[in-house]
Amino acid sequence: MMNRLWQNFQYGLRLLAKSPGFTLVTVLTLALGIGANTAIFSVVYSVLLRPLPYYQPDRLVVMGEGRLEKRDGFAQDSNSSNPDFLDWQKRAKSFQSLTAYSFDAFTITGNGEPKNVFGTQVKANFFSTLGVKPFLGRTFVEGEDVPDGPHVAIITYAYWQSDFGGDRGVIGRTINLDGSPATIVGVLPADFQFSPGSNPLWIPLHPGVDAATRRSLRWLITVGRFAPGVSMKQAQAEMDGITAQLAREYPEQDGSVYVGIGSLRDKIVGKIQPLLLVLFGAVGFVLLIACANVANLMMTRSVGRRKEFAVRTVLGASSGQLLAQLLTENIVLAALGAGVGFIAAQWGVNLLIAAIPTPVLNTLPNLREAGTNLPMVVFLAGITLLTAILFGLAPALSISQSRISEELKDESRGGTSLAHGRLRNAFVVAEIAISLVLLVGAGLVLQSLHALLHQDPGFDPGHLLTFSVNLPNSSYPSGKEYPFDSPAAIQFEHQFSERLRNLPGVESVAMTTAIPIGSSGGTIRFMVEGRPVTVGQEDESDIITASPAYFPTLKVPLVSGRIFSATDDHDAPGVLVVNHAFVKKYFPNEDAVGKRIHFTFNPKEPYRQIIGVVGDVAQDDLSAPPPPVIYYPNDQGPSTFLTYMIRTAGEPGAFIGTVQSTLHDMDRQLPLIAPLTMEEFTGQTPAVFLRRYPSYLIGSFATLAVILAMVGLYGLLSFTVTQRTREIGIRVALGAQARDILRLVLGQGIGAVLLGLGIGLLAALALTRLMSSLLYRVKPTDALTFASVTVLLLLVAVAASYIPARRAANVDPLVALRHE
């Protein structure tokens, strides 16, 4: 048995070596299909299929509190308050463990140049809940996550390598975080990542009195591990009961909330899962077209081998032996294609990951590890075998079913059967149909991206440079209660903004806590003066801190009233500016200017007056409706994490070095954080990424598919012309004109194209509905896209058909009659 397989293998290699042109074209075609599929599978496996790098990750969930009236649209990564979290820990029996985390930024000194590092603050049991053990040292222990607890830190493996040179003596070393010493007690394992953020620094939660005790301040993200045997439904039912108890006990804070639970994996991959599945389907279509093309090549080649197989049959070879020989040859071809495709897949995976913005990449724990692994190799082997069967089955069956007597007597025609011709036509029809589906998908996503990027964001994004500055609490202390009282932070902001405004080429400078199109800041509950309100049913809005120059710098239009001024400081009456969406929701038939509202988180909070209404800005997401926003003057509640937006006369990126120098002149301990032009910042947001990324990839797949389909159509007609040369010669001899022959050959090609377009349109109408989550202001059945793609593909197909048709029209009848 093995000897026969080895003989088949050797014979197949000799045949392929005798036809280097055929072998090269076939291997490259297969390499494109197999390589692209393997690359996409590697990413899909890493993100969707590979287990999260935690112990029994399927038992990990996230929890958060949402407003009852928004339950249908609740996002499971909503936050919870520390008192509610502590009550959950005491009362919930469905969880083996509950933990929580939040985010912060720190300026690290004492280890080279000052550097800003984003960190994750966690409860002491965070790593034990995930089931993560350190590479070096230890994780946090009970008692380290209390107010005024010990200052210790854990760092990631990558940060240990990059900033500490992989020194195993790092345990016990002291680093300065915002001017306060912290002892490194552990290094996390190399494969540890946690979404969102994958921050390099991990510290215990040390909440202030307000954050630790205020039930209405929801700032923690809760992670739970189910107890053995507990289902999602059971846990949700128990939490609904606990929430009802807390609502009765604390009606003002918890009377209008509920707790939502969702799997940790869904939280991580929820938004990107449809994108990856669509890409995997698209690249699968490319493989089908490659197989159809290779099958056509194999059938063309099989015409010359019919007599060979007829002779071998007469000499005693069975149909099974002939099929085994052909299958062996197909596997050899597929294996060669897979070898080249494997190399291309490695390159492709690197390109796929490099094209993903870092903020998005950091939210997908396993994606950086995409590449060569056992599942990828198994997939490559499986798809290679499947490909060999797909492209080789039809030619093998057609040869094995040939009539021996006819093939031995056929000394002149070398033609093909009617069934052969129909099969070859079917392959081309399938290629055209699949190409149309991919082109329609690419067209819809491109049109969606164009609509997203060309809508009015509510401000002028041109010539804007964004960056942040983190003021350490040790040097710029803030108050322990809201509103913050930090004269040092206010003074820094004023002086730094003034220096920036005086730079040549800088037109204006604004400070805020939330850059448009990327973040919404926080939310706050309030009540309008004079309006009755049920306890726990207060209104809610986004809240953003801004300097007086914020609106002029972004060129946000003033609708009514006025914007902030330099006199709206800590000693002045409390003032607010709201956007049009806020007025539309809470003052639909009133003039909001002059109205006063009270933030309900603190009974001692004074009423603040609305002094102005501004236009809506795309704050959270370009694709989302602008939310109601309250703008709060920075001088009345200063932030210590300052985000600046500078409008420049020239290219904003050219000002980064000058801004860096200006900041160092102010305070050499402060690093410049994430300097980006507004265009760069927008390109990293999920809304833009989730449409730009698939538009590039599906567009590339569609282009490749069209090229392969047109090659297949060209090959079909060229082969047809060759097979029908004698017939064409007779027609010309009997008086047929060149245009008649041209019409005859073009008719065959256009007929296959029209049938493929018809099938493709029906398939596209059904399949593009699966892309609805990737589209913006474009219907999956957009008529313009369907019509444009159909016309484009028809024109390209006519062009591909014209060359062989023209050659047929120029056939010399004397030469044709002597053919074969």
Summed up:
The chain is an alpha+beta fold and about 800 residues long. It has 26 helices and 22 strands.
Detail the topology: elements first, then pairings:
Blueprint: H1 2-18, H2 20-49, E1 60-67, E2 80-81, H3 82-91, E3 95-109, E4 115-122, H4 126-130, E5 136-137, E6 152-155, H5 157-164, E7 174-177, E8 180-187, E9 201-204, H6 209-213, E10 218-226, H7 232-249, H8 251-254, E11 257-263, H9 264-269, H10 273-303, H11 306-314, H12 319-354, H13 358-361, H14 374-400, H15 404-409, H16 418-453, E12 464-470, H17 487-501, E13 506-512, E14 522-528, E15 539-546, H18 550-554, E16 558-561, E17 575-579, H19 580-586, E18 596-599, E19 608-614, E20 629-633, E21 641-648, H20 656-666, E22 673-677, H21 678-683, H22 686-723, H23 725-733, H24 738-767, H25 783-809, H26 813-817
Estimated helix fraction: 40-55%
Strand content: 15-25%
**How would you sum up the global shape?**
elongated
Strand order of the largest sheet: 3-4-9-6-8-7
Report Rg: 34 Å
How far apart are the termini?
40 Å
How would you sum up this structure, described in words?
With 820 residues, the protein is of the alpha+beta class. The protein has 26 helices and 22 strands. The strands form three sheets. A six-stranded mixed barrel has the order 3-4-9-6-8-7. It has a six-stranded mixed β-barrel with strand order 14-15-20-17-19-18. A four-stranded antiparallel beta sheet has the order 13-21-12-22. A hairpin with a 2-residue loop joins strand 7 (174-177) and strand 8 (180-187). Helix 1 (2-18) packs across helix 12, helix 10 (273-303) runs antiparallel to helix 16 (418-453) and helix 22 (686-723) runs parallel beside helix 25. The two termini are 40 Å apart.
